[in-house]
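Subject: sequence -> structure tokens, single chain

Hey, anyone have a minute? Need the predicted structure for the following. Not urgent.
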Amino acid sequence: MSKCKKCSDPDYKDWVGDAPKCAFMGDRFSPENWNCGTANAIRDICYEGQQPIPQGVDYQYYDDNKYATIKIYEVEGINADALWIGWYKTRGATQAIWLLDQYDEPRPPTEAECLAIIAYYQKERP
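Reply:
Had a minute. Here:
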């Protein structure tokens, strides 16, 4: 098993301390992670402290628990309506990421699906 593209980048780790534990060592997201580059990039899309929250993102927090729903039905190549993500404080672990749609049960996303969402939200849109 290999790390995700972002965790494999030798320039990704820019902090003193433990190396990241990738959330995408298998086919899909795993909650057994710490400072995964891909999971952190998804968090950066929706976290109020990182940038203005884009249209299509609903960010909430309660007692240091943070969660967001990200509209993704316009993201090419993904058959889902939204991505839901949850994490605690600004610590490195991302507890949950789920793809949601109206026809199937929630499922964890693949690295490729997360990278497509990240690319979509990094584009300048009206």
